[in-house]
C-alpha cells in the first residue's frame, strides 16, 4: 500500500490555500507541488525558480541544509504578503482577483517544500530533524494566520455566494467550493477565543506528529538484527547477498543485516528456518515506537487524540472521524465502518482456514508448535507450495526490478500513449546516485508530458515504505506547467553487477506507485487546487494499475529469468493465477485491523484510551485472530499519527478496493480485455486526467455507467458474495 513525510498539522490546509502542498507523509500517496510566478530571483537556491531544461527542474545538486530554515522563513513571509494583498484588495471580490490570485500565490514556498520533502523522506538526518522539529509549530502558526484571516475568508465567501459562480466552468466552481470549504471546515467561522485555542492546538499537533514520525525512523535506524553465516538457513541467495551488503554498509563485515523495515523483515520471516530469530525480527519490527524508551509513541498518541478531539469540538462535531469524513466519498464514519464489517467476517473466517492448513503442516513435520504471528509467513509459504506447488522464491527469479520498470512503461504506452526515454546522466540534477530520470512524451506527437524520477533502493535516512510525489504538477491557468513526478521505494539492492529481484507483493506495489505517477502525468486540469485528492478515492487509480501486472502481455514479455533470460514458464504462471486468492485472509485482516482501529481511535472519547490496552481490547471484541497483528500497530501507525493525511481515513484503501475490483470487471467484460481501447479511453478521461476537478462519485459513474458494488471485491478476494447486491 502506499503507499507517505513531514507531519505538519495544518500545513496541508495552507499549502492548498497558497497553491502548494506538503511533501507526502509516511506511506502517504502523493504531494502536489505547483509553481506560481517564476519572475523573482533569490540568493537562496531553495527559493529560486527551477532552471534548466524541461520547463525547469529542481536544483537537487545545489541543495544545502543550512539554506532550509531561512528559505522557509522568507518564503512564508512572502506568501503572507501575497495573502494580505488579496485580502485587502479594494476591488469587488471576483473569481479572478480572489480565487485565481490565491492559486498563483506561494510559488516560493512551493519550491522550498520540494526540497523539504526530499530531506524529510529520502535523505533525513539528525540535523534535518532538528530543523523540522523547530519549524513545524512555526509552519502551523503560519497556516493559521491564513485560515483565520477574516478579510480573506470574507472575499472567498463572497465569490462562493456570488452570481458569478453560475458563469464559471465546472472546474472553476469546484475550485471555489474547495477553497471556501477549507476555510469553513478549519476554524475560519469561530469567534476570537476559539480561534486562538484552535491555533494553539494546531501548533502542538504539528510538534507531536513530527516527533511521532521521527521516533519511528529512529527505531528503524537503531534496531538492526545482525546474524552470522550459521544462521542463514532457508534464506534465498539473493536475500543473503543483499543482507551481507547491508551489513558491510554499516561497518559489520562478515555479518548479515536484517534491517528494521518491511522489505527486509517480510522475506526473512517467510524463509528463515530459525524460529527463534524469526520471533526476534518480528518483535523488533512490530514494536517500533513501543519500546518504553525515549522513542516510545504511546503518550504522544494519547495527546494527539485529545487535541484532535478538542479541535473538532470547537467546530461543533461529535468526534474527529465525523469531521474528517464529511467531505469524503464515505461521508460518515458509520458508512466506512459498515463497509469494513461487510468484509471482516469473511476475512477472519478465511484466516481460520489458513491457520488450520499451516498447523497441519507444522504437526506433520513434528515441529511441536502452535502457529504464532512470527510463524505465519513461514508456514504460509509451505502451504503455498503444498497446495499450489508454488515457490515464492522461484517466482522471484523472474521479477527483475529493471524488467518490471520496462513492463510499467509498456502499460503506460498502451493505455496513455506515453513513451519513456532515459535522460542523459547529468542533464537533470538528482539528490542521490540511485535516482534516475526519464522524459515522458506522447508516442504519436512527441509532445513533452513531463519527467519521471525513480529512487528505488533503501538506505539510511530514507523512510521505509513506498510512495509517489510530484515536484511540479500540471496546470494551465498561469502558463502551461508540465509534470515532474517521482516514485520512491525501499527495495534491497542486488549485489554489484546482479539484478535486483523482488517478491510478487513488491512487484504489485511497484505497479501501484507507478499508478500514482500516471495519475500525476495524465492530469488535464487548469488549477493547482484541482490536484488536491479525496483520500478515499486517491488510492483507487493506483490500485487499479496493479491489475496490469498479471496481463498476458506483461507476463509474456517482461517476466524473464534473471540469469537465463528465459520467459517465465506457462505452468508457473498458471500456478500464480490459481493461487491469486491465496493468503487473502491474512492480507485483508492485517490491513482491516489497522483501518478499523483508526476509526475506533477517532470515534472514542480520548480520555478512555491507553493505546496498547485499547488496541488489544478492541481487536479482541472483533475476534481478531491471535496469529495476526495489525499491519501498522498503533505506536508506528504513521499514516494516522505522523500527519493527518490518513487520520480516520485509512479505511480509504478498502473503499478504493471496491472501486478497483468493480472497475477491473469493466475491463474483463470488454472485448479487448485490459487493453480495450474504448474502456481504456474512459479510464484516462474520467478516472485519471480529471484529478479532483470533478466529484469522484460522478467521475466513476461516467466511467462505469453506475456506482460500484462491493460484490466485485468479494469475488476478487475469493470470499462469499452476499446474497443481496450491496451498492456503495
UniProtKB/TrEMBL annotation:
Keywords: Hydrolase, Metal-binding, Metalloprotease, Protease, Signal, Zinc. This is oligopeptidase A. Residues 79-193 form the Oligopeptidase A N-terminal domain. InterPro entries: M3A_DCP, MetalloPept_cat_dom_sf, Neurolysin/TOP_dom2, Neurolysin/TOP_N, OpdA_N, Pept_M3A_M3B, Pept_M3A_M3B_dom. It comes from Alteromonas profundi. SUPFAM superfamilies: Metalloproteases ('zincins'), catalytic domain. Belongs to the peptidase M3 family. It comes from the Bacteria. Binds 1 zinc ion. Its EC number is 3.4.24.70. One of its GO terms (molecular function) is carboxypeptidase activity.
Amino acid at each position: 500500500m502506499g503507499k507517505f513525510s513531514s507531519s505538519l498539522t495544518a500545513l496541508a490546509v495552507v499549502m492548498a490555500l497558497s497553491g502548494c502542498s506538503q511533501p507526502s507523509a509516511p506511506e502517504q500517496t502523493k504531494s502536489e507541488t505547483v509553481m506560481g510566478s517564476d519572475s523573482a530571483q533569490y540568493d537562496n537556491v531553495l527559493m529560486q525558480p527551477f532552471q534548466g531544461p524541461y520547463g525547469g527542474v529542481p536544483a537537487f545538486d545545489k541543495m544545502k541544509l543550512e539554506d532550509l530554515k531561512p528559505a522557509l522563513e522568507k518564503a512564508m513571509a512572502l506568501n503572507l504578503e501575497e495573502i494580505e494583498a488579496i485580502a485587502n484588495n479594494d476591488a469587488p471580490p471576483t473569481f479572478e482577483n480572489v480565487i485565481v490570485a490565491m492559486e498563483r500565490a506561494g510559488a516560493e514556498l512551493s519550491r522550498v517544500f520540494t526540497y523539504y520533502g526530499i530531506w524529510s523522506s529520502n535523505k533525513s538526518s539528525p540535523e534535518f530533524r532538528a530543523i523540522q522539529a523547530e519549524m513545524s509549530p512555526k509552519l502551523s502558526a503560519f497556516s493559521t494566520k491564513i485560515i483565520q484571516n477574516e478579510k480573506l475568508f470574507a472575499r472567498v465567501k463572497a465569490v462562493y455566494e456570488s452570481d458569478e459562480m453560475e458563469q464559471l466552468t465546472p472546474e472553476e466552481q469546484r475550485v471555489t467550493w474547495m477553497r471556501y470549504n477549507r476555510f469553513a471546515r478549519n476554524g475560519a467561522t469561530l469567534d476570537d477565543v476559539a480561534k486562538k485555542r484552535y491555533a494553539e492546538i494546531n501548533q502542538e499537533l504539528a510538534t507531536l506528529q513530527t516527533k511521532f514520525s521521527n521516533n519511528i525512523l529512529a527505531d528503524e535506524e537503531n534496531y538492526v538484527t545482525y546474524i552470522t553465516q550459521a544462521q542463514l538457513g532457508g534464506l534465498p541467495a539473493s536475500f543473503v547477498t543483499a543482507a551481507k551488503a547491508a551489513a558491510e554498509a554499516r561497518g559489520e563485515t562478515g555479518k548479515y543485516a536484517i534491517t528494521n523495515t518491511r522489505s527486509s523483515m517480510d522475506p526473512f520471516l517467510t524463509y528463515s528456518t530459525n524460529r527463534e530469530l524469526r520471533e526476534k525480527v518480528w518483535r523488533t519490527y512490530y514494536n517500533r515506537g513501543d519500546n518504553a524508551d525515549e522513542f516510545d509513541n504511546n503518550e504522544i498518541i494519547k495527546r494527539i487524540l485529545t487535541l484532535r478531539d478538542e479541535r473538532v469540538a470547537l467546530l461543533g462535531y461529535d468526534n474527529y472521524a465525523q469531521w474528517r469524513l464529511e467531505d469524503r466519498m464515505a461521508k460518515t464514519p458509520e458508512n466506512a465502518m459498515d463497509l469494513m464489517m461487510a468484509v471482516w467476517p469473511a476475512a477472519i473466517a478465511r484466516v481460520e482456514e489458513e491457520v488450520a492448513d499451516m498447523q497441519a503442516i507444522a504437526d506433520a513435520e513434528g515441529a511441536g508448535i502452535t502457529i504464532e504471528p512470527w510463524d505465519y509467513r513461514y508456514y504460509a509459504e509451505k502451504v503455498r507450495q503444498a497446495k499450489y506447488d508454488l515457490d515464492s522464491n522461484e517466482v522471484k527469479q523472474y521479477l527483475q526490478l529493471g524488467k518490471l520498470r520496462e513492463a510499467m512503461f509498456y502499460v503506460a504506452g498502451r493505455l496513455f500513449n506515453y513513451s519513456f526515454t532515459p535522460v542523459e546522466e547529468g542533464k537533470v540534477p538528482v539528490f542521490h546516485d540511485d535516482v534516475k530520470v526519464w522524459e515522458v512524451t506522447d508516442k504519436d506527437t512527441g509532445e513533452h508530458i513531463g519527467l519521471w524520477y525513480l529512487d528505488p533502493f533503501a538506505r539510511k535516512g530514507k523512510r521505509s515504505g513506498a510512495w509517489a510525489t510530484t515536484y511540479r504538477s500540471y496546470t494551465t491557468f498561469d502558463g502551461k506547467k508540465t509534470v515532474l513526478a517521482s516514485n520512491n521505494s525501499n527495495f534491497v539492492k542486488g549485489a554489484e553487477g546482479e539484478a535486483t529481484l523482488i517478491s510478487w507483493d513488491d512487484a504489485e506495489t511497484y505497479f501501484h506507485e507507478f499508478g500514482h505517477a500516471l495519475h500525476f502525468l495524465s492530469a488535464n486540469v487548469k488549477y493547482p487546487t484541482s490536484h488536491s485528492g479525496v483520500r478515499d478515492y486517491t488510492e483507487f487509480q493506483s490500485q487499479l494499475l496493479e491489475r496490469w501486472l498479471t496481463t498476458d502481455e506483461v507476463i509474456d514479455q517482461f517476466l524473464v529469468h534473471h540469469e537465463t533470460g528465459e520467459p517465465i514458464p506457462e505452468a508457473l504462471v498458471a500456478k500464480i493465477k490459481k493461487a491469486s486468492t491465496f493468503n487473502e485472509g491474512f492480507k485483508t485482516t492485517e490491513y482491516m485491523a489497522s483501518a478499523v482501529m483508526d476509526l475506533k481511535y477517532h470515534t472514542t472519547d480520548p480520555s478512555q484510551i491507553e493505546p496498547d490496552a485499547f488496541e488489544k481490547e478492541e481487536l479482541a471484541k472483533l475476534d481478531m485472530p491471535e496469529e495476526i497483528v495489525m499491519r501498522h500497530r498503533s505506536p508506528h501507525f504513521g499514516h494516522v499519527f505522523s500527519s493527518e493525511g490518513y487520520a480516520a481515513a485509512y479505511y480509504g484503501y478498502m473503499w478504493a478496493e471496491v472501486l478497483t475490483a468493480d472497475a477491473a470487471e469493466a475491463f474483463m467484460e470488454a472485448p479487448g480485455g485490459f487493453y480495450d481501447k474504448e474502456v481504456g479511453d474512459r479510464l484516462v478521461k474520467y478516472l485519471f486526467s480529471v484529478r479532483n476537478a470533478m466529484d469522484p462519485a460522478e467521475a466513476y459513474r461516467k466511467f462505469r455507467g453506475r456506482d460500484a458494488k462491493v460484490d466485485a471485491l468479494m469475488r476478487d478476494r475469493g470470499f462469499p458474495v452476499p446474497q443481496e447486491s450491496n451498492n456503495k
